[in-house]
Protein 1
Amino acid sequence: MILTSLLALFASTALAQQAVQQTTTTYFGTWSSGSGNVLTGPGFANPANESFNYPPTTGISYSFTQDGFYETARYRFNSNGSMPNCISANLVWHHGTYQQQPNGSIVLTPFGDGFQQVQDPCAPVSNFVQNYNVTELLSTWAVTQDPILGSRLFLYQFDGTPWPPMLFMSATPNMLPTRSLRNISAPVVIAKRSTNDGDSVRLWGISGLVSSAVAAGLASLLL
Ligand SMILES: *[C@@H]1O[C@H](CO)[C@@H](O)[C@H](O)[C@H]1NC(C)=O
Ligand SMILES: *[C@@H]1O[C@H](CO)[C@@H](O)[C@H](O)[C@H]1NC(C)=O
Ligand SMILES: *[C@@H]1O[C@H](CO)[C@@H](O)[C@H](O)[C@H]1NC(C)=O
Ligand SMILES: *[C@@H]1O[C@H](CO)[C@@H](O)[C@H](O)[C@H]1NC(C)=O
Ligand SMILES: *[C@@H]1O[C@H](CO)[C@@H](O)[C@H](O)[C@H]1NC(C)=O
C-alpha cells in the first residue's frame, strides 16, 4: 500500500518534472506567463458571443503554428498614476497570420474578429466590449533555457517594451480555429453592467459606445 503510493508519488513527480522541462528553441507552440492561467485556445475567449472567461490570475499567452497562424490572449490590470484608485482591467483576444521579417521582427496581422473588454470603474462607461483589430509588431524575440522552468519566450513590443516572459506550455499550439470566428459586421455586444437589475445583455453600436473622452483614455491604456 505504502509502496504503491510511494511509487505513484515518484511517478507523478517524474512526470511533473518532465512536463515543466519541456524545451524548444523556436517560438512555435503555446506559451503563457506567470502562473499559466491565461491560455490561448478554448477557455479564454468566446468569439461567438464576444465574452471572456476570467482566468483566476492575470497574464498573457501567445501561440504560433509552424504554418503562419498566431493567437494571443491577454488579461491585465492597468493603473493610472494620476488616479491611483482607478485600476482598470483589460482582456484582449485576437488571432490571425504572422510574418517573420528579415530583421527578426514578427508582424501579427489579425483576421479582424478580435475583441477586448475594458472594465474601468472610474470611466463614464465602466464596462464594455469592443472590436480589437490592431496589427502588432513584435520587434524582437528570444527563447532561453532555464534548468528548472524549461524554455522561456521573451517577446518585445514595437517600442522595445518587453511582454512578461512566458513559459513553454505545449509544442502543439492550443488555439481556436484559425479563421474568422464571428460576424464582424454585426454590432458588438456590450458586457452586462455590474448592477443587479437583471437586465439581459444590451446591444450597442461602436459609435454610440465610445465617446471621445473614453476613446482618448483607452488609447493611452493600450499603448
Ligand atoms: C458565451 O458562450 C460560452 C460558450 O458557449 C458560454 O459558456 C457563455 O456562458 C456565453 N456567455 C454569455 C455571456 O452568453
Ligand atoms: C489618467 O486619468 C486621467 C483622468 O481620467 C486622464 O486624463 C489621463 O489621460 C489618464 N492617464 C493615463 C496614463 O491613462
Ligand atoms: C523590422 O521590420 C519591420 C517590418 O518591416 C519594421 O516595421 C521594423 O521597424 C523593423 N525593425 C527594425 C529595428 O528595423
Ligand atoms: C482589420 O485591420 C486590417 C489592417 O488595418 C484591415 O485591412 C481590415 O479591413 C480590418 N478588418 C476589420 C474587420 O475592420
Ligand atoms: C452579420 O451581421 C449583419 C448585421 O447584423 C447581418 O446583416 C448579416 O446577415 C450577418 N451575417 C451573417 C453571416 O450572419
Protein 2
Amino acid sequence: MNVFHCSLPYKYILDILLLLLVASNCRSDDNPGEEDNNDNCAVLCSGELFEDVQLLRLFNSSTRFPHMKLLSSPERIQHEFEVLKNTSNVLDRGELQKFVEKWFAPPGLDITIVMPYDWVEEPHFINDVYDIKLRGWLHDLNGIWKLLLRKTPEDVKENANRYSQIYLPNPFVIPGGRFTEMYYWDSFWTIEGLLLCQMHHTARKMIENLLHLMKQYGHIPNGSRKY
Ligand SMILES: *[C@@H]1O[C@H](CO)[C@@H](O)[C@H](O)[C@H]1NC(C)=O
Ligand SMILES: *[C@@H]1O[C@H](CO)[C@@H](O)[C@H](O)[C@H]1NC(C)=O
Ligand SMILES: *[C@@H]1O[C@H](CO)[C@@H](O)[C@H](O)[C@H]1NC(C)=O
C-alpha cells in the first residue's frame, strides 16, 4: 500500500511549475533583479552593535536580535550607538540592553497568522488508505495546514529597512511552528503536500512568492530574510 499515493496530474503540474522556475532563473541571470536598496545589514547582521549584542550574549538565541524591528532608520541607530560608545568607556551588558530596548521592538511584528481558505477537510487520497489508525493520523496531519500559514504585514513592505524579513505578496506555509520565514528547499516538499491535499490555491500562491523573489533578487534566497 502506498500511503502517499499521489494522483499523477498534480505531480506533473508541480514538476512543470518548478521547471518554469528554473527556466526563469536562467533568464534572470542575464538580467539580475533589482537589489534591495533598503539595506539594514549594517545594524542587523554586521557592525559594532551587532557584534556587541552577539558577543555579550544579550539574548539566549542568536537569531533573536536579527529578527527585531528597528524603531528608527539604520543610519540613526548607528549614529546613536556611536554616541553611546563615545560617552561610555566600557559598554556593559545593562547599558547595551537598555539601548536595544529603546531602539528595537521584540521579534514577531514581521509576520501574522492567516487561515488557508482552500483547506479541505477530507482530501481524496486519505480515502485510499485502508488502515484506520493510519487514516486517522493522516486526518490529523492534514489539520496542521491550518496552523502553518503566514503572511508578511504591509509594514514590512512600506518600511523594508526596519526589518530583516523580506516582504512576500502572498501567504506562505512555514515548515514548523517556530519558523518565521519561508524557505526555498522546504517549499518544494510543502507544495507537493499542498497539491496532495488539494490546496491548489495556496500552492499557487507559494510559487508566486518564489517568482516574486526571483524577480526582486535575480535568484531565490535560501530563506525570506536578509542577513
Ligand atoms: C529565551 O528568551 C526568551 C525571551 O527573553 C524567552 O521567552 C524564552 O523562553 C527563552 N528561551 C529559553 C530556552 O531560555
Ligand atoms: C566618536 O568619537 C570619534 C573619535 O573621537 C569621532 O571621530 C566621532 O565623530 C565620534 N562620533 C560621534 C557620533 O560623536
Ligand atoms: C537554509 O534553509 C534550511 C532550511 O531549508 C536551513 O536548515 C538552513 O540552516 C539554511 N541555511 C542557511 C545558510 O541559512
